[in-house]
Design a protein that fits this description.
By secondary structure, the chain is mainly alpha-helical. The chain contains eleven helices and three strands; from the N terminus they run H-H-E-H-E-E-H-H-H-H-H-H-H-H. A hairpin with an 8-residue loop joins strand 2 and strand 3.
Length: 246
Amino acid sequence: MYDYTTYLSEISEYKQLKLEEVERSLLFRVINTYESSAYKIASHIRIKRLSSQYKSEFPVMKRLQEYKFISEVQQPSLLRDSIYYKLTTFGLFYIFSNTLNYPPQLLVYHHDSSILKALLFQYLQPNTIRQCTGRFYATITQYLKDCCRVTINGLNKSKLLGNIEQGLVQIEQDLRQEAKILVIKLTIMYNESNLLADSPDTTDENARLSLYELESNMKTILSKDNRFLEFLEIIYREVSETLSGL
């Protein structure tokens, strides 16, 4: 399995910031680019050099760049009438930890980033996220927020105690525990008898049937996710070994 070393190394210098409204607004624009089907530019926002509107926003983008939330992407000479930016590990961490609204495509596009390789995509395949339902996705976004909280609290504690190495080991253990909770929660959620359990107020039979079919399809997608199944098997073995030792 992918370890947390690269992710923790990158995020160790992260500083918690309170962004101004205009900074948050532009960060939202970067995020909302993911709603486009043009995945080749999905993580970038274009700043036209000759537009007065974009010129006024350019200093804000530079501040986000100074915060290391975004980085400039080199483009071929034919495209140099524009500047392209992409989200960095810091930018993604800010988004996840503050639960900003972001589409599943953001996660899928950044599946190769250190933060998502460590926290999410060693346990789930990108296709599972790409096809996920709203209920499933809400569980994922909460999980990512919890992981960010565990990370920042662990880093602050280890710096305070002056024992970074031991602190990193503890953070890895805590993050792995969060992942186990996620997988168990999803397993329970998509148990056949639980597919409609979270929506008792839905009385319209057609609505209930549609909801059942939607979540049942999600269950099928999850059952074909090898990463999810492999980690579930690891959890099962650990529980079995613990019980056998009692």
